[in-house]
Amino acid sequence: MMSLADVQSMGAELGLVQVYTGEGKGKTTAALGLALRAWGHGLRVCIIQFMKVGEDYGEVIALRKIEGIDIYQFGSDHLVFEGEQTDEDIALAERGLNLATEVLESNEYDVLILDEINVALYFGLLSVKNVLTMIKNRSGGMEVVLTGRHAPKEVLGIADLVTVMRAEKHPYDSGVVARKGIEF
Fold first, then answer.
1. 134-156, pLDDT tens digit by residue?
2. Which value, to the nearest 10 degrees, does the dihedral of the CA atoms of residues 64, 68, 74, 80 take?
3. pLDDT in tens, 44-65
């Protein structure tokens, strides 16, 4: 497995902040594609999912089988709706943020993906200030990816790369429900 030093010796510098946001489909998919690409080059990847739980997601099933990619979920068994957040939702998000802080301080990983953290911020499960502080205080050389709709302007401001997914057409609009293996 390639080390961070090996990657950097090839001229690549890790340590950027990437944000995938917007109303369109593909934010988590893009981040997981990056995870696979990084793993394929020997980088160590940690994925922390906010507001998600369960083994129903095909990507979780697959990722749990890959040595070198660790995935953790911090969500309850119910959907969270704006204005209906529970103390449990907040506690789970804070546990996820605590783990993210530990990961950023550990130097055990090269890439950290914070999946759906932007939604957790939008719903007020986490403090934007705390997330920004965590990212700014990370040790150098760790790539950080934040996904989810409604990325706060402060998060966009510190990002090195921002991709906004925009939906032009979606099968949901025609009544097609989420399909196993395609949407989950």
1. 999 887 789 999 999 999 999 99
2. -70
3. 999 999 998 876 788 889 999 9
Runs of H (alpha helix) within 10-159: 27-40, 58-63, 87-106, 117-122, 128-136, 153-158
Measuring CA to CA, how many Å separate 97 from each of 37, 64, 128, 168, 169?
24, 21, 11, 33, 34
The C-alpha atoms of residue 89 and residue 95 are separated, in whole angstroms, by 10
Amino acid identity, position 30: A
pTM, full prediction: 0.88
- The number of helices, as runs of H, and strands, as runs of E, in the chain is 7, 6
The one-letter amino acid code at 90 reads I
Q: Classify 97 as helix, strand or coil.
A: helix
Element (H, E) at 7: helix 4-9
Residue 6 pLDDT class (50, 70, 90 cuts)? low
- Whether 113 contacts 34, CB under 8 Å: yes
**CATH dotted code for 46-136+179-183:** 3.40.50.300
C-alpha pair distances (Å), 105 with each of 102, 139, 141: 5, 6, 11
Phi, psi of 57 (to 5 degrees): -70, 125
